[in-house]
Amino acid sequence: MKWLIPVCLFGAACAAAERFDERLVLTALPDGNVLGHWTFTTTLGHDLSHAQHYTLFPLGLGQTLNVHGASELHLALNAGQWDYKLWGSPPEPSVASGAELWTWIRASNTTQADERWVGLRNALAGVFCASLGSLDDQRTTTPALSFKPSVQLPLGKHQLRHATLPAEHVCTENLTPFIKLLPCKASAGLAALLNPHVLFSAPFHGLSVHYTHGVLKLAVQAVFTPPRQDWSLNTLLDRSIAAACTVASSSILSFVAAGTQLDPQPSTEVNGALQYDLASATFPFEVTVRHPVNTISSHRRTSPSVSLRRTMTGSAQYAGGLLVQLENARNETVRVSYLETLPWFVTLYLHTLEIRVNDDPRRRIDLLERLSYVPPRAPAPTTLEPILRLPPLSRVTMRFQLERAFMLYTQFPPDAQRGWDLPPAILTVLPASTSTHSERVYGKTLLADLPTPDFSMPYNVALMTLMLCGYWFSEVFRIITRKFVVEPA
Amino acid sequence: MRLPKALIALSLALASAAYDGPAASAAEDFFGPHASNHTNNWAVLVCSSRYWFNYRHMANALGMYRTVKRLGIPDSNIILMLADDAACNARNPYPGAVYANAGRGLDLYGDNIEVDYRGYEVTVEAFIRLLTGRVPPGTPRSKRLLTDDRSNVFVYLTGHGGNDFLKFQDNEEISAFDLADAVETMWQKKRYNELFLMVDSCQATSLYSKFYSPNILATASSQVGENSYSYERDADIGVFVIDSYTHFVLEFLEQMNKTSHATMQDLFSKYNFKQIKSNAGVRSDLFPRPLDATRLTDFFGGVAQAEVVDAALGLGDGGSTLSAPNVAQDTAWNEHHEEQEPAAEDEADPELRPEGFRMGSVVVGLAALAGLLGSAVWGV
After folding, report:
1. Which residues of A make CB contacts under 8 Å with B?
2. Inter-chain contact B50–A414, Cβ cutoff 8 Å?
3. Which pLDDT does position B113 carry in this prediction?
4. Assigned architecture for domain A306-411+418-448
């Protein structure tokens, strides 16, 4: 404990180490849309388990993460479909529609990890006004390969918990608490541009929260459609920045749009991105983006080398199949891990797995390098996690047979006819060497159509049965109690 | 012996200040003989209907949310339950906005909203657990009704109802008996001081007909056997945007501010078939106070916290500056103070607002000062 004393004596120095950086990157996309990516990074300088005297770090979130032992946490709330082909790799990898939460929990055993997971998801549900409390045993999995810690975890045993809620909506009530976690709220700095009405009209929008070892990153990414080819912050987002966030160590607004004219002149250019430093800007801050005549300017972003398509096959409600197509655009063999999570009421038959390459009818089970499979034990879901080797420039097709369960009357949600949203499939491109980072690609969420009863039927049956019983009883009662008398004529 | 003398002096000063002084009578006038003795306000606002075509029910609850927030109940004391997401619904032509009038004049969703229970979470079970406090362990603070026996609770329910029931999610029902028993549990667990229930649904009065617990005031949009109708539709949104009864109540409350003295009777006596399109009902037999002495702000508004500033206690040099003029002018100050009260604040944080200074604190402050002076004179 002695070494702690000098650290705590210089508490002021500790506080000074805390810093807040904000950044907004606006990128012109090939289809004319504009990608906005806000990042708000609070660096604590030490771990959460030390004294909780935060100046910039949000106290409520810090305490929640500390109490529930979350050493690393990633939460994403998205709406819309991210178009990998057109828009490239997203700056925040989690783009599955709905909610996704994964965390490495510090726990000595599974029981403790489960307890902490329950507490964490409920606390986060309260913080972000989302139904994260419903990420229960039906939805929680522990994939072995897809979610590695992004930085070295602190000492102690850790367990992974991952869950998705594909039907979750994202709206102003999620943005409100999100903004409240920022030191300047939405009154100054780049967060002033977060206009809920514009953000939630965007074809794709998502909020995400990342915590890794004393660093909290809050991010917003959205694809906006500018009203005209020439746009400004005000026409795109219907807001302008009134003042700089004075506690921010850096506040950078950056444009990635080749061949455009910006007004006012940007202060610096870094790797083709034109940057403004809000610390030296004049307020109210506004930038106009003009395109010279007859130039289409866009920045082609690198797309992931592997794409994923997943569809449900079969027309019956009871039985069906799952078709997964993985396409390798690279001219070399790529190793990927594919994660399929299916709720307990959709049973996957592993023996029906077929792997084929392109239009070749031969089965290529040899492409399967390793398979991790957790069968469903209601209410826990199925987790299927194969590692596949995708041949160069090929399309690999995986097929499974499925069966959907007949559920109990009370297990249906209120809008049962809508169907069930199945969690997204997640493809992780495994790095060739340990130096490069693995990349995740999310598939679309699917809607499973389950055998659904006519919900008025139980009432009909009950009423009919009761009516018949009543009629039978009254008739019997009448016969056995009535006294038959012959009246004299 | 110094301490008992000081105590006697203090109690004497308190007694004289509280019962004889001009401040006392002013305070009594201010609070009135039938004043509510609650110390905190809570609101539970429930829209129990799912699906886009029930947009108006979402708008009803959000209209009420905006009003109670405007009248001073902070977000932390409002439990908002919305069974579906109208604002970011794929069918909403105005994402992130919910309007309650045909011209789309006022966005009820705004920039600052906290929905505590949403979507599938809004169930009869969750609602009853919330009221009775029997929530599962680990439930966050924002999803708990942390009331006590000094809480005035406003419960607003809207959805599709029938005789003795209200539908949740178009799937299950809460019966009037369930609701009455839940409220009785609340009473036995000392979870409310007074409870005000407002229901906007068809046959809504049936929902309050089974209550048997004390201190309940209830009102509802329509009689048994009677429908409750929507008010108007917006052509661009494509659905009806608000119900007649809620529209009527919100219009009435729109004229109020935090310091309004309007009473429940003022609201109830304005009920008319022509505007509401149904016969709204009131049940007050369980409610001990006269309706014309029960202020609307007892339920729709938040209690302003008494903030006693150091100067009033006469600590240090500032003590000599406090003297009788404060008391002499108290009535005038009182009126002045009311005019000064800001009408609407989005971020209502009563603990940080010195405007919440009430007559009570003046009385206590003066009494304490007198006590200190007394002990100083007698103690030497």
Report:
1. 79, 118-119, 122-123, 125-127, 129, 131, 133-134, 167-173, 176-177, 186, 195-197, 199-201, 413-415, 455
2. yes
3. 93
4. Sandwich (2.60)
